[in-house]
């Protein structure tokens, strides 16, 4: 091999400078193109990312964004959604209107505005908005369906039917639209059109129980009973837990029943419907069937329950009159017949005034209708009519009939104050015939916003928010728990009980719901049930001082649990933060355990933590007087009593304490003055009566001294008797004599709700005692006349739940 060849092999070829430059240029182009793609992707996804951020934002974040970016329609849209789903309909409507002004072509925004305006009561605004949206988007099934639903709910049935059909023209597979068309046609008495539309709905979605149920109603009206029964069977098969499907099936079975076996099958179905939801229609249908079976004894209590739920239904009074007549109670039969006739007249007046109010939009007729409802104690219906009057009053009526509008506002305010239960929202509402759409926002996010309102002590606002959430999502235990807290903080105990009870049925491990429900039981006197719930809760959450303190309060009056009570309080204090209430209760237990020095130390620590709390001062002062008394301790006690009276001049314990000190110093006249004032402000203060008797003896007034001793004796005897009877009734729950005695003791002590409850329990155990029935009627009449009649629903529910637990 020559040198030239070797040289060519050993020395590499030189790379051209042109090819190097070309390679670098291509690399830069690739990098530049990649960067441009990334930038384009970033810019392209920006609206999507912003939308996702807005959707996940909290209420407070959206409110801040609306101020920071006032021309962004998406901000106002999402703010409106959040406001709407938290029950703030008025502000939500305004937010959607602003969003529509900023983006007039958005179907989503216009639909939200229209539906929210409808919920706000602005029917004309809602109709105009939804109609414009449907005109602007003629091929949108969603727009036509929303307008159809609005029209149906506002009784514009012909237009609702037309819009529902327009929806099906846009989307022939829209089962909801077919169902809505069928329902509207049914109410228009177009039975053929109703059947056709509902059969299409069932064909499109054979698993929709609402369509099956609606088709059953139409077929029943067409006297196609066998086909209707098949539809009701299918609806019940698809939704066996929906009470309405069971009721529809039971009524259809009852109507078709001819043999005893068929009637018994119908009775079992209707009984199951009552178990699912003891509503008036279910109880009435069951009572009527029991009457057909001549089972008068079972029909009577069933129909009486129905009459309690709907006392203004003429039909139930007619059925009761028949039952009483068969049982030989002619007095009751005559009473029910008279009531039936009165209510038939009421129904005629209601229909007449209702027609005038709706067709003529006459506010005066609507006012008379609202008053008619009040007269017949249909307070919820009256409330709705007053609201409708104020919502639908035209500008012309505002000018020509200002007195009518003003009177309606005044009467509405009085109704809301006198009957707050009329404003309650149905928590167990069945889904409507068209179905309810869920919120766009996850329930957990809405609960978070509502809990933020609770944290800021905005309790009415939080209540409204939680009510809206639970209406949309009936499965959220956290939402019911929050609703219960909002209600409890407004002293709406009965509604709070129902909310907490529902929360725990959905999620038994919700600690706040369990604790608050236990507290409600404690307040109503069900100490054992309160303790049982708190014992379970503390096993779940062992280191919460409030729970430990609550259980200690339940144990406080039980001598066998003094040491256990002390241990609970010591643990609560150790966990911290230390509260004056813990130390105050601990001192009481230490007194019961004869540890006076420890009790005094606990009282003084409590007073150091809460120096302005009068109750602690009074307790410490009374302790100083009763334990190792001395002139120095007496002087300190006197100073504490006087400090209490400087801020609470009617504190009966402080007045009694000063009276006791005056008596010990030989100043009987001052003692009489102080002690008379004490019993004046608290007539059940037994110790004050005892001291007052001694003071009267000192001034030589023997007659008053004997009267004071009698008062002391009566109070202590009553309390001993009540405590003993409660204990006996607790261990012998089915002894009617104990229940009657307890009812009378509660009535004597002014514990009216408990008295009524015990009378009811007694009469369920001994139905033949007419004397107790008269006593109960007289008690209820007195309470109603004085405006002090308690609502019994929550108390009876609490007692029933307590008995079931045991």
Write structural notes for this entry.
- By secondary structure, the chain is mainly alpha-helical.
- 79% of the residues lie in helices and 0% in strands.
- The chain is built from 43 helices and no strands.
- Helix 9 (157-170) packs antiparallel against helix 10 (175-187), helix 10 (175-187) runs antiparallel to helix 11 and helix 17 runs antiparallel to helix 18.
List keywords for this structure.
806 residues, mainly alpha, 43 helices, disordered N terminus
Quick summary of this structure?
Helices cover 79% and strands 0% of the residues.
Instruction: Please give the share of residues in helix.
Output: over 70%
- Mean pLDDT, as a whole number? 84
Rg calculated over all Cα atoms: 36 Å
Assess the beta-strand content as a share of residues: under 5%
Low-confidence stretches: 1-15, 424-438
Kindly name the structural category.
mainly alpha
Distinct helical segment count: 43
State the total count of DSSP E strands: 0
Biggest beta-sheet profile: none
Shape: globular
N/C terminus separation: 111 Å
Structural topology:
Blueprint lengths: L2 H8 L6 H40 L2 H10 L4 H13 L3 H14 L4 H14 L2 H14 L4 H13 L3 H14 L4 H13 L3 H14 L4 H13 L3 H14 L4 H14 L3 H17 L3 H13 L3 H14 L4 H13 L3 H30 L3 H13 L3 H14 L2 H6 L1 H17 L24 H13 L3 H14 L4 H12 L4 H14 L4 H13 L3 H14 L4 H11 L6 H14 L4 H13 L3 H14 L4 H13 L4 H17 L4 H13 L3 H14 L4 H14 L2 H30 L4 H13 L3 H14 L4 H17 L6 H13 L1
């Amino acid at each position: 091999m020559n040198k030239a060849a070797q040289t060519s092999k050993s020395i590499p070829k030189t790379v051209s400078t042109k090819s190097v430059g070309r390679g670098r240029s291509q690399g830069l182009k690739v990098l530049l193109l990649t960067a441009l793609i990334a930038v384009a992707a970033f810019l392209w996804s920006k609206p999507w990312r912003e939308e996702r951020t807005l959707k996940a934002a909290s209420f407070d974040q959206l409110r801040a964004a609306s101020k920071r970016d006032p021309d962004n329609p998406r901000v106002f849209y999402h703010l409106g959604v959040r406001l709407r789903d938290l029950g703030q309909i008025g502000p939500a409507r305004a937010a959607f209107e602003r969003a529509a002004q900023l983006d007039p072509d958005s179907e989503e925004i216009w639909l939200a505005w229209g539906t929210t305006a409808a919920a706000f009561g602005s029917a004309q605004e809602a109709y105009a908005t939804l109609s414009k949206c449907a005109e602007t988007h003629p091929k949108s099934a969603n727009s036509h369906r929303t307008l159809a639903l609005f029209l149906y709910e506002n009784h514009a049935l012909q237009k609702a039917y037309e819009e529902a059909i327009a929806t099906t023209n846009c989307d022939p597979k829209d089962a909801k639209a077919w169902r809505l068309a069928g329902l509207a046609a049914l109410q228009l008495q177009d039975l053929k059109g109703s059947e056709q539309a509902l059969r299409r709905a069932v064909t499109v979605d054979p698993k929709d129980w609402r369509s099956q149920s609606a088709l059953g109603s139409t077929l029943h009206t067409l006297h196609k009973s066998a086909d209707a029964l098949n539809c009701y069977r299918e609806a019940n098969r698809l939704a066996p837990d929906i009470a309405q499907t069971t009721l529809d099936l039971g009524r259809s079975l009852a109507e078709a029943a001819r043999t005893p076996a068929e009637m018994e099958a119908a009775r079992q179905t209707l009984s199951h419907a009552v178990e699912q939801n003891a509503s008036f229609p279910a109880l009435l249908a069951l009572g009527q069937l029991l009457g057909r079976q001549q089972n008068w004894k079972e029909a009577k209590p069933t129909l009486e329950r129905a009459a309690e739920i709907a006392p203004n239904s003429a039909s139930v009074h007619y059925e009761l009159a028949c039952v009483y007549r068969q049982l030989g109670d002619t007095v009751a039969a005559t009473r029910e017949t008279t009531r039936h006739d009165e209510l038939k007249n009421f129904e005629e007046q209601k229909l007449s005034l209702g027609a005038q109010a709706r067709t003529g939009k006459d506010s005066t007729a609507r006012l008379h209708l609202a008053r008619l409802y009040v007269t017949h104690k249909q307070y919820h219906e009256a409330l709705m009519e007053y609201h409708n009057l104020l919502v639908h009053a035209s500008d012309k009526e505002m000018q020509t009939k200002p007195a009518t509008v003003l009177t309606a506002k005044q009467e509405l305010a009085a109704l809301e104050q006198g009957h707050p239960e009329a404003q309650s929202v149905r928590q167990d509402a069945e889904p409507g015939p068209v179905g309810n759409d869920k919120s766009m926002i996850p329930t957990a996010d809405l609960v978070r916003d509502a809990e933020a309102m609770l944290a800021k002590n905005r309790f009415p606002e939080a209540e409204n928010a939680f009510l809206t959430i639970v209406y949309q999502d009936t499965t959220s235990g956290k939402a019911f728990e929050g609703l219960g807290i909002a209600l409890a903080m407004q002293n709406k105990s009965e509604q709070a009980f129902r909310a907490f009870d529902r929360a725990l049925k959905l999620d038994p491990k919700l600690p706040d719901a369990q604790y608050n429900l236990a507290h409600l039981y404690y307040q109503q006197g069900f100490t054992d049930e309160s303790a049982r719930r708190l014992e379970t809760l503390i096993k779940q959450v062992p280191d919460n001082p409030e729970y430990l303190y609550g259980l200690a309060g339940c144990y406080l009056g039980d001598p066998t649990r003094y040491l256990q009570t002390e241990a609970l309080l010591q643990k609560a204090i150790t966990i911290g933060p230390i509260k004056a209430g813990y130390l105050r209760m601990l001192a009481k237990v230490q007194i019961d355990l004869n540890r006076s020095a420890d009790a005094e130390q606990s009282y003084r620590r409590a007073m150091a933590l809460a120096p302005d709390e009068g109750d602690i001062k009074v307790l410490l002062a009374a302790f100083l007087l009763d334990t190792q008394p001395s002139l120095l301790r007496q002087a300190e006690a006197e100073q504490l009593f006087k400090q209490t009276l400087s801020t609470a001049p009617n504190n009966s314990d402080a007045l009694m304490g000063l009276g006791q000190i005056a008596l010990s110093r030989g100043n009987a006249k001052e003692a009489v003055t102080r002690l008379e004032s004490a019993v004046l402000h608290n007539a059940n203060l037994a110790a004050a009566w005892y001291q007052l008797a001694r003071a009267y003896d000192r001034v030589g007034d023997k007659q008053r001294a004997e009267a004071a001793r009698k008062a002391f004796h009566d109070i202590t005897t009553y309390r001993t008797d009540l405590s003993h009877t409660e204990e006996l009734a607790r261990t012998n729950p089915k002894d009617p004599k104990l229940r009657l005695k307890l009812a009378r003791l509660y009535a004597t002590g002014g514990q009216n709700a408990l008295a009524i409850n015990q009378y009811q329990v007694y009469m369920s155990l001994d139905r033949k005692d007419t004397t107790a029935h008269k006593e109960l009627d007289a008690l209820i009449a007195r309470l109603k006349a004085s405006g002090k009649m308690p609502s019994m629903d929550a108390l009876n529910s609490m007692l029933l739940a307590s008995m079931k637990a045991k």
